[in-house]
Write a structure and sequence with these properties.
This protein is mostly beta strands. The chain has 1 helix and 5 strands, in the order E-E-E-E-E-H.
């Protein structure tokens, strides 16, 4: 897993939802979606509970000016419509 990678949740109440990896620590990843899980309150999940994609966005969490709206814009193409 890499910072900025798009992943899908495989378990929990957020199963099937799309997230961006904010950071990686030991066997955990910290995820954000810009809506329910904003940048200031990321979701902590184990590696085995997320399905990575091959898509990586140019995300630098420490960069000033990064907003939840930016995250939502990047994730919008991955959210199923219907």
């Amino acid at each position: 897993m890499k910072i900025g990678q798009i992943v899908f949740s495989k378990s929990g109440r957020d199963k099937g939802k799309v997230f961006v990896v904010l950071s990686v620590e030991d066997e955990f990843v910290f995820l954000t979606d810009g809506r329910i899980r904003p940048l200031d309150r990321p979701k902590k999940k184990k590696f085995k509970h997320v399905q990575p994609t091959n898509t990586i966005i140019g995300l630098k969490p420490e960069a000033e000016g990064l907003k939840d709206a930016d995250i939502r814009k990047w994730l919008d193409p991955f959210i199923p419509k219907g």
